[in-house]
Automatic annotation (TrEMBL):
Entries under Pfam families matching the protein: Pyridoxal_deC
Organism: Micromonospora craniellae
NCBIfam families (alphabetical): PRK02769.1 (NF002748)
SUPFAM superfamilies: PLP-dependent transferases
A GO MF label: aromatic-L-amino-acid decarboxylase activity
Residues making up the signal peptide according to the UniProt record: none
Family: Belongs to the group II decarboxylase family.
UniProt GO BP: carboxylic acid metabolic process
Needed co-factor(s): pyridoxal 5'-phosphate
Record-listed E.C. numbers: 4.1.1.22
Protein known as: Histidine decarboxylase
């Protein structure tokens, strides 16, 4: 290690200085990440998978998948792996083979953008509905599309308020509806009930599209058979992050869209010999390889066990935190444990994501019971009277 604890990264990284000690900068980044790992339990990246083989073996070349994953020409270095990833995720979600399309994205955000863009082109007069618990990318995307947004109330536990959705839809029955449901809301990991949403749309005879933002929970719920895109469910598209449950060490994801809702236009680009159907055109082939590798390492069964173990750690966390006198709760399917916001020192140390009076930790695969014990010990020292009460006690705490 060539740096000391006084190492100033901003100074060392300043590109106007010479000479630049590149090794010291890289050492510092690695040291910082290593040091932070033990207490990084607030954000949803799995830490149990080893991607070193792909990172070191493929690190010397450019991996660019230009154009559509189904193209046959052009430059697309890991297109075959991308196709395998798309097929695996679509099969897992039971998406009909004859009505599916998708690609490897830069993350859940691009997946939401691609899906909502496709749906809005199909229904250009639609109003786009999403709940107050939806991810911040959703209102941003609606603005980018220039569409009308309708914000639906969410309950304190994070699930969409269906009565409010019904009331909002009823007022706008003359326009098609694009509804964004979330499978794993950012703060509490609530899962909106797509069957209920579809039933409300059917009751009002409304045309439109149901998109699921499943950035965190898409794969774990699908492994359990709790989320699928078969014909009965009426879900038109889904966005999943690759750096969350699959722990890929670079932001990436998968989007799947019903082929039948997409515009038939398939713009051809002469100089790339590719079809321009994705948001970015040039796309990260390394991400496709990393996703493929992560899936191949464990297969369906192995990933199911990863999810089961992580949920068991989350249940343990609820028990241990409650044993200190601090409140905590989780949805039965969730890796996320919600608690009243602890003091600043604890939040900072454990990187607990916080929204006002509520914070969370996320027991992603790789988070250990030892880490939970250490957090619980910190919370125990922070207990003052009166003990904070759970904000949403009405949710089961055991898987
Ligand atoms: C519900 C939800 N949607 C979308 C996203 C964005 O995903 P990404 O970071 O992969 O763009 C997140 C990220 O936290 C999320 O929690």
């Amino acid at each position: 290690m060539t740096h000391t604890h006084t190492f100033d990264l901003a100074v060392a990284a300043d590109l106007s200085r010479t000479p630049i000690d590149v090794t010291a900068v890289l050492d510092h980044l690695i040291h910082t990440a290593d040091t932070a790992a033990a207490t990084s339990i607030g954000y949803p990246g799995a830490v149990d998978l080893d991607h070193t083989a792909v990172m070191t073996r493929l690190g010397h070349w450019l991996w660019n998948n230009i154009g559509d994953p189904s193209d046959t020409g052009g430059v697309a270095h890991t297109r075959v792996l991308e196709q395998a990833v798309i097929a695996w995720v679509a099969d897992l979600l039971r998406m009909p083979v004859e009505d599916r399309w998708g690609y490897v994205t830069t993350g859940g955000t691009e997946g939401n953008l691609s899906a909502l863009h496709a749906a809005y082109r199909r229904w250009p007069t639609a109003r786009i509905y999403y709940s107050t618990a939806a991810h911040y990318s959703v209102p941003k995307i609606v603005d980018m599309l220039g569409a009308y947004k309708v914000v639906v109330a969410a309950r304190p536990d994070g699930e969409m308020c269906y009565d409010d959705l019904a009331a909002q839809l009823r007022k706008r029955r003359r326009w098609p509806a694009i509804v964004v449901a979330t499978a794993g809301t950012t703060l509490t990991e609530a899962v909106d009930d797509t069957r209920r949403i579809r039933a409300i749309l059917t009751e009002y005879g409304m045309a439109g599209h149901l998109h699921v933002d499943a950035a965190l929970s898409g794969i774990p719920l699908a492994l359990d058979g709790q989320l699928h895109l078969d014909d009965a469910g009426g879900i038109g598209s889904i966005a999943i992050s690759g750096h969350k449950f699959l722990g890929v060490p670079t932001p990436c994801g998968v989007v799947l869209i019903r082929d039948s809702i997409r515009t038939p236009a398939r713009p051809q680009v002469a100089y790339t010999a590719a079809t321009d159907t994705t948001i970015t055109g040039s796309r990260c082939g390394l991400a496709a390889a990393l996703l493929w590798h992560a899936i191949a390492l464990h297969g369906r069964e192995g990933h199911w066990w990863r999810a089961a173990e992580a949920r068991s750690t989350a249940a343990y966390a609820v028990e241990q935190i409650r044993a200190t006198g601090w409140a905590a709760w989780r949805w039965p399917h969730a890796f996320t444990v919600v608690l009243p916001t602890p003091p600043e020192s604890i939040r900072r140390k454990w990187l607990l994501a916080t929204d006002g009076t509520v914070s969370h930790l996320i027991c992603m695969p790789g988070i250990t019971r030892g880490q939970i014990d250490a957090l619980a010990a910190d919370l125990a020292t922070a207990i003052t009277t009166p003990i904070p009460r759970p904000r949403t006690p009405n949710v089961t705490t055991m898987p």
